[in-house]
Amino acid sequence: MKIWKYFLLFFFVSAFAVAVAVAVYVGLIYMEYKQDKEAVFSKLEEFAKVLETENETDTLLEESNENLSEKKATVVYDRNGRVITKYSSEKYKLASIQEMPFFLTRGFIYIEDRKFYSHHGVNYLRLARAVIDNIRTLGHAGGGSTISQQLSKILFTKHERSIKRKIYELFCTFELESRFSKNEILKIYLNSNYMGHGTYGIANAASFYFGKSASELTIAEAALLVGMNRSPERYSPIRNRKNAEYILSYIMGKFVQAGFLTEEQSVFEIERFWERFGNHGILGEQSIWKTEINKSGYLTEYVRQVLEKEFGYDKITSGGLIVETSFDLEKQSLAESTVSNQLKNIRTRVKNTADKMKVDYSDKTINHIEGSFVSVDYETGEVYTLVGGSGYLFSNQLNRAINANRQVGSSIKPFIYAKALEIGELDGRGIHPFTKFKDEIKTFKVAGRSYTPKNYSLSHKYGSMVSIYDALKRSLNTVAVQTMELLPMEEVVQLIGDAANIKVPTKRIPPVLSLSLGTAEMSSLELATAYCVFPRGGKSVYPTMIRRISDTRGNVYYDSKRKINPYFRFLQPEGLCEVKTLLSQETACEMLQMMGGVFERGGTGYWAATTCGLNKKAYGKSGTTQDYKDGWFAGLTGKEVSACWVGIDSGESLLLSGEATAAVIWADYNAKVFSDTSAQLPVSENMKLLKICRESGLEASSRCDNCIDFYFNANAALPEPCYIHSDDIMIIEEDF
Ligand SMILES: [Zn+2]
Predict the structure, then answer these.
(1) What separation in Å is there between the alpha carbon of 690 and the centre of ligand 1?
(2) 704 CA distance to ligand 1 centroid (A)?
(3) Alpha-carbon distance 665 to 646, whole Å?
(4) What is the distance in A from the centroid of ligand 1 to the CA of 663?
(5) What sign does the dihedral 668-670-675-680 (CA atoms) show?
(6) Would you place residue 89 in the very low, low, confident or very high pLDDT band (cuts 50, 70, 90)?
(7) Can you give the pLDDT at residue 73?
(8) Inside any domain, residue 676
(9) Comparing 283 with 82, which gets the higher pLDDT?
(10) Are 208 and 62 part of one and the same domain?
């Protein structure tokens, strides 16, 4: 034999062997498929029957049979065992083909599978093209599936290995085509495809996204749903507005091609769609995932985001998860109503101010005035309340308490003065809370440019000597900047970063002179935890919101008391959770007493506290940023440290200071909230109680009649005896 004949023989033998191997492989898959087939198709036929007669159902096609009997929804509890949220395993809405508008069904076929009515389950030409495209793009092209194939995919979700699964799906597709009519296949598919955010089928998606039934869908709504089919979360108008805009225009363009409507009508419909969707808020269901009970949108949404990072949708809706949180529902509902009610008042006040100042300020801007509020147990760092805005709506989901970093203004000052007290001596002068600075306008040179900070009040009279105590109380910028100029900048940045648990501090806490007036950017949660440093005697704390995640079978996935929680590192970031000593107990205690002064007559918290009837011992500090863009107040009553922000997301001016905005929400909440203990000063044995004469800011003599008690660090500089009311020497008034 010639050598080429051997080659030929070898070739045929190998080809035969490969063919046999493939046949055996396919045969084996077929055997496996045959075993599952009856179970799957009997379930499918049952579903088809339900579709025929009912308009809602308990079970979905996509769920595996095994877990059905022990399906348990995830429940989220507050610190007292009250249910905050229960994710629903509620009934699913169904819709017949007749109920769905023609542009939905016809449009769906036009986009997904144009030859749907003529092929026998597989469009070979398209499949071949898809295979080639996938080889070319290394599996990134996807597609090529008919509607029947897509339905098969839903039926056999548990087979992960892709070639095996593809063959499996082919058998299933042929069986589908032989058992059901084309319209039945279409109906089953459109009632069971995943449409994002936990919704299945067109009827549920119509209700979830647009608050209507399938028959009421407009052409643009239908187009968006058609476009979302392949990748619902990616094109979700809630999560990804930009992507949704793109896909809607794309599909509407296809609809124009198909002759469903004209180009002009399409433009009009798209515009009308976004106009309605943007303002709808009241339409659709009020949670990004379906819930049976939902006591607070902000808490539910926060927990959902945490769970979504680690668990799939099925686990959350039917895995029986138990989520124990640190939140306090009673306090949360008080905080939510306080924020929402007081924001109404604040909007009115801003409007009146705008009218008085003759500033052009539209109603739209007024309505965009928002707020956030957080409160924390300073002993444990457990978060009681988390309010992300004026009310949780589809159109207002941003959780500003966590996700909006804004400049904190004068709320930063306690950290500046704390650093000065901690160092104890600046420019050769001993520093204590009553050390005096001249309240004057000074120009500083910063990187070659001049910087001239002024106090907020336009009618302010400069020139007097003021103590740090009074400067904090009245929020005098001049004194804060003078102090900052004498401090080691990097250490101040580090202190603030460590207190607020911000990992790379210099990014959001710039080491510049104006940091003393609050150019640092923080969320309300960060500011609240930063303020915990003072009542904690100088020690940092990391906030806890999730205490424990377990399930009804006793598996514990996360426990905040555990040292290591492998899959939940984001809840306890490395390097941030350890308690650090940032200030001495003496400094922290002095600072806290100074923050008590803010509520005295003349202090920036006085008006809000008296207006709201706050008569508990309180410590705090207001904040206002440049051009009145942000209003802040942070502080504590009892064991609860809270921080409040008021502003406009896009950064317009509020025309009012923090004293008149955030301070009011803060004081109103703290006046009403129940606390069983009053705040304790962290006094140490190295501290000395002195009487201070308010008039002179010096140690009172027996002749001073307006005094306050103050605990001083006994090892640092102390105020001198009051010479105004001294027994010994008469001081001539003019000299003082
Ligand atoms: Zn005196």
Answers:
(1) 13
(2) 4
(3) 9
(4) 32
(5) negative
(6) low
(7) 82
(8) no
(9) 82
(10) yes
Residues 297, 257 share a domain: no
Residue 487 within a domain = no
Same domain, 123 and 218: yes
In terms of residue numbers, what domain contains 725?
A: 685-736
pLDDT value of residue 325: 97
Q: What is the mean pLDDT of residues 272-294?
A: 63
Q: Which residues of 393-431 are buried (b: 16+ CB within 10 A; e: fewer)?
A: ebebbebbbbebebbbbbbbbbbbbbbbbbebebeeeeb
Q: With a cut of 50, say whether residue 478 has pLDDT above it.
A: yes
**Among 531, 553, 577, residue at a domain's last position:** 577
| Residue 715 alpha carbon to ligand 1 centre in Å | 23
Q: Looking at the structure, do residues 123 and 259 belong to the same domain, yes or no? A: yes
Same domain, 58 and 79: no
The last residue of one of the domains, among 524, 551, 577, is 577
> Using CA atoms, how far apart are residues 664 and 658, in angstroms rounded to an integer?
9
Q: What count of Cα atoms within 13 Å lies in the side-chain half-sphere of residue 261?
A: 21
Do 211 and 301 share a structural domain?
Answer: no
Quick: pLDDT tens for 97-111.
888 999 999 999 999
Determine the pLDDT at residue 90: 57
Helix (H) or strand (E) holding 300: helix 297-310
> What is the Å distance from ligand 1's center to 463 Cα?
21
> Quick check: 285 pLDDT over 50?
no
> Do 125 and 245 reside in the same domain of the chain?
yes
CA of 706 to the centre of ligand 1 (A): 7
Task: Give the phi and the psi of residue 719 in degrees, each rounded to 5.
Answer: -65, 150
Q: How many domains does the chain have?
A: 3
Q: What is the pLDDT of residues 400-409, one digit of tens each?
A: 999 899 999 9
* pLDDT higher than threshold 90 for residue 142: no
